[in-house]
Every structure is written in structure tokens, then in C-alpha cells.
Amino acid sequence: MPKSFDATYIKEIRKGFPRINRDFDGRKRIFIDNGAGSLVLGKAAKSEMKSRIDYSANTDAVYSESKANENVIMEGRRAVTDLLNAPETWNIYQGESASDLFFKVSYALRGILDRDSNVVSSYAEHFANVSPYIEMKKNNGISELRLARIGREDGAVDLEHLKSLVDKRTKLIAITAESNLLGNKVNIGEISKIAEENESLLMVDGVHFAPQAHSNVREMGCDFFVFSAYKMFGPRGSFLFISDRALDVIRPFHVDRDARPGTGSYIETGTRDQGIFAAITTVANYISRLSLDLKDFKANEAPRDRRTGIRKGMKRVEEYHRELSKAILEGIENEEGLGSQKNIVLYGISDSSRLGERGTTFSYNFKNLNDKKAESIYWKKFGLTVVGGSHWNLAHDFYSNPSLLRVTFLHYNSMDEVKKFLGATRWISRQ
Known about the structure:
Elements: H1 7-14, H2 42-54, H3 64-83, E1 92-95, H4 98-108, E2 118-122, H5 131-138, E3 144-148, H6 159-165, E4 170-176, H7 188-197, E5 201-205, H8 217-220, E6 224-228, E7 238-242, H9 244-247, H10 274-289, H11 294-298, H12 306-330, E8 331-332, E9 335-336, E10 344-347, E11 361-366, H13 371-382, E12 387-389, H14 395-398, E13 404-408, H15 415-429
Parallel strand pairs: 2-3, 2-4, 4-5, 5-6
Antiparallel strand pairs: 1-7, 6-7, 8-9, 10-11, 11-13, 12-13
Helix pairs in contact: 2-10, 3-10, 10-12, 13-15
């Protein structure tokens, strides 16, 4: 089987996303604002709707609708366990958003963090992964929040600098697996070694990484991993992995007086939305099916082992994303690449020999006009969802640049869409 997807396979993938070609108004457009939230898989939306209608009863009762609700939630936990290659379902928790989960974890660390401890992060982070510790520093909950530098030229996290910031008082390293602004990936395996050497816990922001690569928490060696369902073809809502080691030491707030590690109510406050669990199960099944050849994929076959299928499916996604990134940077057919177009200031890794170090997010500015004007032209003239402004990342501060245009391509985007984006960008750059 080919490592990646050919044009015929991509055409079949696109059939599964109802709004892939036109928005709800019927306008034809190219959706590349995936960094803010992906398109929704049609089958996931249907699963969500069915669970809301059929299993609307609450849990913990003996009648069938209640038990069915419990089963949907448990199957969703199993699905996320497979998505992340996590050890057990008791390691999986659900929250209203990634930010919600980051804050819940920070509160749960109150027995570990104190005014003599520090937290280490980087300038590649989404605000949600650092803002809890900024507040703790203000309120003397920790002594310092230390931020590792990123490269001026490529935006890559300086791992040597990060290592120098970590000491025996570092109780947590909070790091992104992939920058939501620059698109650069971070070597989590290396940071895991640094955390282990200093007996620090490791929090990984996987929100931007999860739809782009295989989120293998065992290989990462992390204690916490967060991703958002709505950036992975599902509904609003997020999920959290917590390692057994971390479960033994955190002290979360919970409403359930009988809550204990391994039960949802240990982290989750209030009644869960069964629709999110139903949808993420469908997403996991879909990703597993991406490991199949085209004939079996079209026939809606399912791999024998979902976890193995997810690993293979996401590896194919990664390979296709590298092809997309190469085309964006170097160009495709007669369209010049983003890395060499005039009047473009590109942030993040732009060397196509380093495609393994980046995802398919690209942030940039035009020299000849401001971001809001460019955003308007992209949409009104070309039907492209390119968005300018702040993307909630500390790199804006590092570069003293409050606004960047950002595009993110995912596996359902075609090479033809890349070509049209590059053509539109070239046209705008010459105005």
C-alpha cells in the first residue's frame, strides 16, 4: 500500500465532509482555517445527533436509556484511549475546552506547586498552556514561569535553552507538541528526558498536533496530553490524558464526594455530554479506516484492530501532510511557493528539507498591505478562508508582531486547493 493518499483517495475522503466545497449559504469556497477548527465529519455529526435523541437520559439508573448513555460515554473513552495509544480508559477525561482542561490541571497541581517551585514553558505556546502559571506567579503560587526562547529565523523551540531553565525546583514543564501559530513541531521525546532527569511532570498541548500526526502518549512519555475534538473533525469539547504517575499526586477539585482516580468525576465536573463521546468514537473509527486501501475504504470496511489502524492511518496522514507542506513551500506546477514569493514575510520553518519538523500551518504577513485587507481579498475575490490577527500564541509577543495571517491544511485538502491558495497569494502580493 502507498504511504500517502493519491488524488483519487483524497476525492473519496472529501465525500465524508458535507461542507468541504460549499458553506451553509451555498457559497463555493476553500476551507483552510483548520487551525481554528476543522470541518466536521458527517458521520460524527450523525452519531452525535442520534445519541442526543436516543440516549438523552442521565446516567446511573437501571433503565435502558440511562444504561445506553453510560455505554456511549465508555465507548468514547475507549476510542480516545486508542487515538492516543493510552494504557487504560481510566487515563482519559473530558472537558468543555482545552483551556478548561489546562486550568483544571493547574488547580489539581496545588499540592505540588508552591512559592519555591517553578514552571518551564516556551514562547511557542498557546496562551491557555501558560496563563494559569502567569496567574500563579502573580499570586505567589509559584516562584517563576520560565520561557524557553524560539529561533528568530525558524521559530523552533531552543531545547538547549529550555534544558538550562529546568532544575530540581521545576515541578512542571508545559510545552506544545506543535505550535498553533508557527506550525513547528517540538521534540517531546527529548523534553520527556529532561523532565524525567529533574523529576518534573510533563504537560503536552496536543491541540494543534492531534489532527496532524499520531498522538502516541506512551512514546512521548508525558503525564498530561490535551486535544480538542472540534479540531479533529468532531464537535466542541476536549479530552485529557493523565498518566498513572500523575493521577497518584494531583488533587483535583470535584463535586462527587466519592470521586477517586480512575473515575470520570475525579476530574470532570457535572454531567457529561454523551454526544461528544459518540462523535469522537466515530472519528476514531474513521481515522482507523484511513489505513485501508481505497477499495476497502470506499466499502466502509473496518480494520481488525482499531488502535493499529489509527497508528497506520495517522502515519499516512503525516506523509500526505509533508507533501502538502512541500507544495506550499516550493510551489506546485506553475505556481510559486510561499517561501519564495515576493512581499511575503514567512514565520516558522521554511526549509523544505526539514518537513519532518513542521506541520501544515503557515503564518505570514504581506509587506504591501495589512492583514485585515488581505483577509478580505482572500475571501471576497478568491473564496479562501485565510484569517489574520492574533492566534492566542506567545510567539506574537516574542516577535513583537500582534497580527499574522494563518492557514492550516488538513488531509482532506487537495493539491488543487494548494495551487489556488498560492495563486491567490501571488496575486495579492503584487498589488
